[in-house]
Amino acid sequence: xxxxxxxxxxxxxxxxxxxxxxxxxxxxxxxxxxxxxxxxxxxxxxxxxxxxxxxxxxxxxxxxxxxxxxxxxxxxxxxxxxxxxxxxxxxxxxxxxxxxxxxxxxxxxxxxxxxxxxxxxxxxxxxxxxxxxxxxxxxxxxxxxxxxxxxxxxxxxxxxxxxxxxxxxxxxxxxxxxxxxxxxxxxxxxxxxxxxxxxxxxxxxxxxxxxxxxxxxxxxxxxxxxxxxxxxxxxxxxxxxxxxxxxxxxxxxxxxxxxxxxxxxxxxxxxxxxxxxxxxxxxxxxxxxxxxxxxxxx
Amino acid sequence: xxxxxxxxxxxxxxxxxxxxxxxxxxxxxxxxxxxxxxxxxxxxxxxxxxxxxxxxxxxxxxxxxxxxxx
Lengths: 298, 70
Fold this sequence. Notes:
Chain A is mainly alpha-helical. Chain A starts with 13 loop residues before the first strand and ends with a helix.
């Protein structure tokens, strides 16, 4: 047998320990993504010119696109508050996902001596693992978002920030009355139904933790599994098709996570009863537009 | 409520959320119902009630999402 398919397992492998704290290969992948993100933005914006060129131009285009997206969903005023979180989500998840298609990720690592012993094989002699050895590898790096722990953490941040900003924007009384609508109980026949709808609202809020984390994890984990399987079935050829697909999936999943966070932030900070905040946002938008026009005219 | 119709990406993201919105409450309702069945030694009554509750929550969540879209 020329080569064997790598075992596809959901839980990340522990590479080493720092004290009692296990360092998994997905954690290493996450830190590589963070360092890559820092390096790109540090060197891209180190020398800032008024007329951007090269790397600075590209990064400014990305940030401007994200800012326009945020303003398109939530208006000028709220966008200032939402933009840092949403843009960070997008860039961080994008860099984590893109690690999926880098050469060496999932394929460079240490030999799993236990499994070699179990298969009654002599220790491998060569640097490349071929034949019976080819599926007995512990990869050093796996993309961070192919670990459910990271995506669950991101989903928790997203949902908790939505609640916190909701409390800040609406005040504790109105925010809590979204979920525990005791006032509606006085309304006669429809009251209990409205109260029940509030509880349903609470369940949908909480179920978002699951949907956010599982969508991102599922897509990226399945993506790396697809790459591994097709590298096994038809090496060198099949992944020419699937690596561009994974690039697209990486982009789309990052954008969807950021956009859904943004949309739910927008919904969460808008009151059910009155669209007062919307009104204020619209007014201040018009004021700033008028200011810009007078500035342009003078 | 919206100033302008949502962009293509926003619609796509919300459409992607739709399946989860229906499926997760159903699954949670089924798990909860099954658990209640096992502690009260019933056969399937709580499972069915849990599924019904999950379905109601899922449909309501889907309605809220589409109210946002259109």
